[in-house]
Design brief:
33% of the residues lie in helices and 16% in strands. By secondary structure, it is an alpha+beta fold.
Length: 748
Amino acid sequence: MNKIRFVFSLILISGMVIALDSKIGDLPPLGKLFDPFHGFWQNAEAPGAIHFDSSLLLPGLTGKVVVKFEENLIPHIFASNDHDLYYVQGYITARYRLWQMDFLSLVASGRISEIIGPAAVNFDRLQRRKGLMYGAENSLKEFEKNENDYSLTLAYAEGVNAYIRSLEYKNYPVEYKILDYLPEKWTPLKTVLLLKYMADDLSGSDDDLENTNAEKLFGKERFDFLFPGITEENDPIIPVGTKWNFSPIGTIPSDTRTGTRDLIPRSLTDPEEGLGSNNWAVSGTKTLSGYPILCNDPHLRLTFPAIWYAQQLISPEINVYGVTIPGLPGVLLGFNDSVAWGLTNAPRDVRDWYSMSFRDEDRSEYLYNGKWLKTQKRIEKIGVRGGQDFIDTVIYTHYGPLVYDKTFLGDSGKMNFALKWTAHSASQEVSLVFRLNRLRSVDGMPDAVRNFECPPQNIAAADRSGNIGIFVEGNFPLRKKDQGRFLMDGSLAENEWKGFLPKEHNARIINPARGFISSANQRPFDDTYPYDYYNDSEEHFRNRRINTQLSAVINLTPEEMMKLQNDNYSVLAQEVLPVILDSVLLGDIGDEEKFIVDALRKWNFFYNPQLTAPSYFHTWFTFMERLTWDEFDVETPLPRPDEYQLSWMLRKFPGDSIFNIKSTEKSETYADIIRESLNLAADSIERWKEMQGGEPLWYRYKGTRIQHLVPQFRAFGKFNIETGGFEHIVNAATATHGPSWRLVVELA
């Protein structure tokens, strides 16, 4: 009996040990996680400052390296040569951001199923079918030809790996313990993958398929009215009237429309709204000091860990300060002792979709220009935690990968859509950072960006000689008119891109007469630019506010630039609110609606955090959008006109038929839309007050939050941050996106 009890106890204890040391469902191994000597308790305090001196013993260093930390743990790395500089940058970055850089490289390469299991398989398939790894491999082969920059990237990877080798389980970042997996060796391929991740985030959306549906449903004339190529109140990056100092190549003879007669039943989910950025520079003629001031304000997802890592790098070759993406050597945004620079996203269509015709079910050949061409088949083996590997066969044409087909997102085999995207090209984006860090003047920018392709960026710069300039950079397809707006027939050679714009034909300006340059994700130029341009996500309000403010003042200081970065004024509200208030008859509305109208009549259009008026206006305008664009409420994927289009039509075309509510028998006018949306807004706000308690102060109503990269880790988040602004405002803080880092540099 005692032996039986002993054996039973042994089995029970063994089972408990195995259970506590194993992942069960979504739960981490609880024994390992709660181990006081090795588990999460060891992560209770963040890594503190470490002090390096000449006695630092790291394999691979060839000289003396000193690292000094500020009170906020910003490292300043002093090295006697560039190899050691980037080696220690990799080591230090891994010490504070290892999990983040490792995790995002897995996201880009479609390997999340290895961590969380079957739930992520479709996500991983999509990442691979979009061709992020394919593009990274192409770029790495090209980058390896640049021996100097590649060797410095290898040194960075060596530093990361030196830190990884120094770790025991107890020292692992807590995310590894919760998710129960281990870091893996860092390589230059992972660095390139991070840039492809950013390319996907910043240029990985389009409305080609949705536009194709919309034109079929509404007709060409109506489509072009609702989705105009250029707006009436355009205030572009390159000032209106700028003369182009080049002769365009080629011609743009005709437009290219759809490649299918059927409506397209589904499309990819676009990246979340809220991405953007502001940058500007003012010349010494407008500053109190007489020297230029440069400002940068990138708007990205607000996360823990933060997307940026601040540092200073000093060697005999460079002295540069700013931020970079963990995993990328050098400084991406910042300044050296001669030049300051800042980047904003240049939202421009660099992706096209082609409908492919295959010879048979095997899909080994596709029709192109009257001939059958061979496809390439790439076997994607997706590791699945707790399950069998998933094997996905991705078909590649000369355009690019087949994202939609009968095995993924396709509709009974009718959808065979290939993606052509500049992110697939063999490029050297990593080299951009090394060149920016060594830039000596604004005039040198065109050479610094010569190998930069994707994602397109507006690069503002200022130098100590007093020059300012802005450069709309990327590799831009040479297309026919409207070629980038719709699905195209992949069998027709006439639908090919006609090459790329020469880099010297990219839109650029140095020292404009107005004394400042700026960008805020708006259209880059007026309609005199000689090449076709298309973008489905232009900004129409922030840019006009920035330009108005910079035009109106002189004797600017860094403090005033900081104030402008925090500006909460809404040009949208300024333009829309007088129109809709004039359309409200007070005798026709209830007490709650009258209260909202009265509050908005007194409002000064600032989205300040402690005000309620922004909540009222935002809710009212949101319901106006829903009622106005109800024609787009169908199962077929369609684009929606943007905020500016509704603002413009309310002011210029109030009698348009779009203001009729489709679901009613009555024929409504825009005034009916305004009153009905006011009623809906009042009800919505009352429900919010009942549920949340208290008044709808804007910061509470909007709910800006900073969340962990794994959203389920809510305990690591910060919620209801007291900040104003919104996506169409200079202080572009939405619920989930906003100012991720800010820079103001006076080049005195």
